[in-house]
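can u pls check wat happens w/ fe (ii) ion
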Amino acid sequence: MEVTRETAWATLTRYTTSEALLRHALAVEASVRFYARRDGEDEEFWGATALLHDFDYEVHPTLDEHPQDGAPILREEGYPEELIEAVLSHAEHLGLPRDTPLKRTLFACDELSGFVHACGLVRPTGLDGLTPKSVRKKLKQPSFAAGVHRDEVYAGAELLGLALDDHVANVIAALQPIAPELGLRTAADA
Ligand SMILES: [Fe+2]
Ligand SMILES: [Fe+2]
């Protein structure tokens, strides 16, 4: 099969109805695509992988199912092992090696995209004017977006060989163009 954004979106939406989960998929997709463009990688393939990384979360909401029980579904649909392996590798509990740029990027973008999204949701101008410094401050408040694993945010930046502030700035820039799809306000609304 040819992996495209359309095939990935069709698979994702066959298994996912939650708006929050769809927005999470879109946010991680935008961040992963940012790095694919920066590094001259296959943006369509990387984006499709990111869209699908949590595709089974709604049907497999616990760690003894997600994402490992999603893999056979993706295989059945004809997705290549390279994509399936990358999807599996985002899960900390599986302990799989992150031995390709795609795997490293997906892991590094997963939690941070969710966190930056959450930062944007509580600001009247969304992501516009959001600085890495203020994101860093919020990371130190355990009660804010408590579900985001801070250790994975820090480990992700390190895995990409980036200073945390640079990684945060990249993710903010990646999410800004899709702010409306993420339910975020912009400076134009304020
Ligand atoms: Fe996941
Ligand atoms: Fe995720």
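The chain has a mean pLDDT of 97.
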